[in-house]
What we know:
By secondary structure, this protein is α/β, with parallel strands linked by helices.
Amino acid sequence: MVLADPTRATLTATDRQQAGQSSAAATGWSAADGAALYGLDRWGDPYFSVSESGHVMVQPRGDRGGSLDLVELVDELQGRNLGLPLLIRFDDILEDRLERLHGAFERAIAQYGYAGRYQGVFPVKCNQQRHVVEQLVESGRRWHFGLEAGSKAELLIALSLVDDPQALLICNGYKDQRYIETAILARRLGRQPVVVIEQSDEVERIIAASHALGAAPLIGIRAKLATRSTGRWGSSVGEKAKFGLSVPDLLATVEALREAGLLGELRLLHFHIGSQINDIAVLKDALQEAGQIYAELTRLGAPMGYLDVGGGLGIDYDGSRTATAASKNYSLQNYANDVVATVRECCDGADVAVPTLVSESGRALASHFSVLVFDVLGSGGLPGAVPAAVSDEALILRNLRETHAVISAIPADDAEAIGAGLERLQEAWNDALKFKDDALAAFRLGYLGLPERGLAEQLTWACCQGIAERLARLPAGLAIPQELQALPAALAATYYANLSVFRSAPDTWAIDQLFPVLPLQRLDEAPSRLGSFADLTCDSDGKLARFIDRGQVKTLLELHPLRAGEPYWIGLFLAGAYQEVMGNLHNLFGSTNAVHIRLAPGGGYRVDHVVRGDTNAEVLQAMEHDPQLLLERLRMASETAIAQGQLAIGDARRLMDHLETSLRQTTYLQAC
Ligand SMILES: *Cc1c(COP(=O)(O)O)cnc(C)c1O
């Protein structure tokens, strides 16, 4: 549907329309077209849609009614002095995801006559933010929803937030003696921590701690499955996996527990085949393998009772429903059905009671609820108007002007004339490129001045522009010469974004992850430009230049020309999992402002929590600088400058005001 990538063999009719600059009216573009273009109707369902007026709408409670206009919301939040970039967290979405997950398992359990239940936990590493974890614990109470911790700090969160004696606290990760003893003692607080043995040497520490305290923890074992997952996290399983016990180690561990009199506490089998499982077939294999191991552990005399299928439940970032990196070939219900049906099959076959099913779904719960909104500060790469000719212009410039005249001679609104002139357009394009190269060479050799070089570039732009405008009018199905297909990309613009991808979307940089990115407004207007985003950091990697494209990737996004005095807000969606904690302070851009929004009972919304972004003072302190000392040094320097007559007292005060204000403000560009 979308052009963008110049390596694509053909352009579709829509592509051509979008390559042109002024075809919006001619195409009869509607908000629905905007929704389709950016895939909102696929990945956004049921939480995000587009209004008639072309604004992104949020339905925080999914199908259960109530919606908010995201543009109005951002406007009103800005009115509350919450500047962009802004992370908006919709707690209703978080709750809805939780309901959907439980609903899916409840339906599967009913459908397959499963004689057990589902009891999930949230892997804290997915988003450790206080209000997020608190919300999940609160909303999950009715299902005895628990938490999974992978470190001592996460264990502290889990132990203190979950006070439901029936909820599970799954303790994963590397564990020292203190971690294990903490888990054992927490049982006396009425908590249910399950210490999952992930490394074979942990069993000795568990035995030692149990003897020392005269009490045992609930014990789980993580199996290293042979089933290989696909995609980015495929190496989370298999013989070389970082975590889990191989079958020989697993059997040895059972015997060690038996000898220590602790086999009676072995309750849970855990596996995790990596995040974002793209292909449901992989999950089925893993479930079968784990199901057999579970049955075997029961036969060996462990009481068991829980099978923890780990995380990995995927997100369809591009809405393509394919087994590709940014997607998955199954629904939440498919997933629950497979877990329930496969485990039942294994247990029935082995004649053991079915376990309580546990999943550690992080990404699937936490992705949808947060939306990152940033503003565009300006755009580059726009061809300007054709500069008027002056007398005795250099030959190269005259050549470029002639080329432009050839293009202009073909009427821009006459499809037939354009079709007939295709060959001339192609020739003009080749000429323009050649003359531009000539101009550069002449500049390097000193034959062409800087103003002339600038003129040559402007004229080349104008030629590109003229050709693109004409190609946009061609009817669908007409073959466009290969070279001309690269034109839209050549005309692509850079949109300067008030954000740091290293802070707010680190996985786009670190592991090439795709998130849906789109303007929040003007979706009822055909986007006439192609572009990508450059962020605020002084790092050429600081950009957003890979976009969802239904199972593929495109390097340019359809965008609108900026309008003077009017903001252009961009949303980055489905980024509630992993991004915040993985974000870093590169160039000292700190956390952004964040807000928690709830639908209000009578309509409208409520701002539940405001989490202010890091101030400049805070990021400086993180690097061990003392902001007051920095200020003091500058104050002294300005006193010296005043004494030397280089700085007026009024200017010194202005300088100090700016410095002090900056220290109090967030690290991003301020509207005022
Ligand atoms: C990271 C992790 C998870 C969460 O995985 P998602 O793909 O986000 O659901 C669950 N369990 C373990 C052991 C993990 O390491």
